[in-house]
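Minutes, project check-in

Agenda point 3 was the complex the collaborators sent over. CS summarized: two entities, 223 residues total, and the question is how they sit relative to each other. Sequences were read into the notes so everyone works from the same version.
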Amino acid sequence: SAVISQKPSRDICQRGTSLTIQCQVDSQVTMMFWYRQQPGQSLTLIATANQGSEATYESGFVIDKFPISRPNLTFSTLTVSNMSPEDSSIYLCSVGEGQPQHFGDGTRLSIL
Amino acid sequence: KQEVTQIPAALSVPEGENLVLNCSFTDSAIYNLQWFRQDHGKGLTSLLLIQSSQREQTSGRLNASLDKSSGRSTLYIAASQPGDSATYLCAVTHNNNDMRFGAGTRLTVKP
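CS then shared the predicted structure for the full assembly.
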């Protein structure tokens, strides 16, 4: 099974700033997924990142707020831009294209 | 739109009990169903994956069943241990890799 490393594991940020989260996989994968888990809630898909094409965003998420990069088949970044307290969540990346899905340990983000 | 519901939301049992967690989904046209474990503040660990053509999967003390036509899955945990305390999430995947999660069941196993 794929091993997924996320950085940072946690951060505390000031309102209005931006943070980039990195996701590294130990094998080449076509699709990578970014999820958000707000406090006390389940996971919500933010976007799907395919190498070599624009990320596909789910309803309620936009590229200006959550820009994603996918420069190669083992790496992706998610940026949370112009942060507000409502962005305080755990952000997780995953791979697996359904067979089965594997997740990183997540990035716990708190905005003051 | 797929809706995934997990019952109960929380469960507390004494050590050694057998227990069942329930998951239901509204759209039966799924590709597979997966059960995950999430420890507090951590990422997800995959427990069991059931393909749409399968009825159940087993791993150690865990057994997951799938009744696709009725939109239900159960996760059975035998002889529960304090180390089983975590939130258990079920998720269904469609052919387009669209994965939808339930809100989870928070399990506490008391020594």
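Noted in discussion: Chain B has a mean pLDDT of 93.
Follow-up: revisit at the next meeting once the mutant set is ready.
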